[in-house]
Amino acid sequence: MQELTHYINGEHVKGTSGRFADVFNPATGEVQAKVPLASKDELDAAVAIAKAAQPAWEKVNPQRRARVMMKYVDLLNRDMDKLAEALSREHGKTIPDAKGDVQRGLEVVEYCIGAPQMLKGDFTDSAGPGIDMYSMRQALGVSAGITPFNFPAMIPMWMFAPAIVCGNAFILKPSERAPSVPLMLAELLEEAGLPKGIIQVVNGDKESVDAILYNDTVQSVGFVGSTPIAEYIYGTGCSQGKRVQCFGGAKNHMIIMPDADLDQAADALIGAGYGAAGERCMAISVAVPVGEETADKLIEKLIPRIESLKVGPYTSGNDVDYGPVVTGAAKENILRLVQTGVDQGADLVVDGRDFALQGYEDGFFVGPHLFDNVTPEMDIYTKEIFGPVLTTVRAKTYEEAIQLAIDHEYGNGTAIYTRDGDTARDFANRINIGMVGINVPIPVPLAYHTFGGWKKSAFGDLNQHGPDAFKFYTRTKTVTARWPSGIKEGGEFSIPVME
Ligand code: NAD
């Protein structure tokens, strides 16, 4: 049994708390490693190391900091296969999907190479007589990030790449369900030239999260995970005077208009609903066909596509559409919610409950499910299922369809399938959701735009990556300067205005 470590001050360090969590291979159901769960003391010790290392790193000029990121991109590409294999082994997603996970993080690292440009300040010459005014963006000090199991490479990189290139030290507390890749990512960053103590990985659970939230040195906290924990971390972190951004759960609707290309829409729903076993915050989990005829045709097109989905372990290579879910507990929760759907009267038109994979009977595989005639009060509509379960809510009109998405408490992503520009434009303008796809099912913005939901899907006012990340990980200082020769008129008692 492998015992995983923390990554502190450039070393793999064994846990000392005596507490561990099991790390599964979801395809076989076996425990493949145990991960140490840090105590408050272990977390605080890592923060003290970060605090000591950070000032020198902040003084390294931005171009040299960016060069570490350049080298990091090379190393991530060099180790892509290794990273993807480790990721699939703990998470269960297919190898091509695992490579996408690394790639989407890597693209944010590439964006961070532009740090010298992003960190350039503003300057106003002669803002007043003999007065210059300039502003600069300075690092916060020590930042921390708490990440979910479903993107063990991408989400940590979304946080630590901008934090570090801005001159901060970073403490990463990854998901205890998929901790190996974050450890590898930290090691590679030091191989790229990052000084010791600037990136550290502290594995753990609520105890280490609370230690982050109550540590006075930690200036900012980023979180991605489920909404109840996002709310807790946002509330607690803010009450401790920290800068906090938290991204939570989702229930993404895709509206299918009668004029949509239904084959295209059905293909999109298959990928967006069942890819990564539905364990994506941008998965489409609600299909909203407009009109009975659209709904009937869509369901007819979906059923054979769903029934021919190939579910299996990542070791089967490209032959698999999606793998197991992350743990036995996740599988149980999905199947429990499916049962509530049946009990509350929805039509289970594709029933994956009896799915079994020969040779992998103990793996956490869940067959694909499709519900029709779901209504807004049902648990399968209100709750995030986070599994391979697509629900269909039939809407009579476009207005009814958009209203469903507007009224849902989550607001991460959404999509509309239509050939009508007017409808698409109206939808994009009126919808109260952060990321919108027009004939695009998973509208994840690229690295140089920003990522973030609305409503109960995000807390805090800045998004992840893109220009917002440079704002989140720095603070602005504005200097108003006058040289002594400019002072000629004695004291000034009313607020200065530039005339
Ligand atoms: P989770 O909330 O269970 O865990 C996320 C992190 O919080 C982990 O590091 C975990 O150790 C920690 N944590 C768990 N319980 C805690 C507690 N009681 N106190 C303090 N910390 C705690 O989420 P998950 O199951 O790992 O990830 C899936 C969830 O993440 C889904 O809801 C999904 O929609 C969401 N997600 C959101 C986004 C987004 O950008 N909005 C992206 C990816 C995933």
Automatic annotation (TrEMBL):
Q: Which GO terms describe its biological process?
A: L-valine catabolic process; thymine catabolic process
In short, the EC number is 1.2.1.27
Q: What is this protein called?
A: methylmalonate-semialdehyde dehydrogenase (CoA acylating)
Q: Pfam families under this entry?
A: Aldedh
Its domain of life? Bacteria
Q: Which Gene Ontology MF annotations are present?
A: methylmalonate-semialdehyde dehydrogenase (acylating, NAD) activity
Q: What species does this protein belong to?
A: Parasedimentitalea marina
- Domain named Aldehyde dehydrogenase: residues: 13-479
Keywords in alphabetical order: NAD, Oxidoreductase
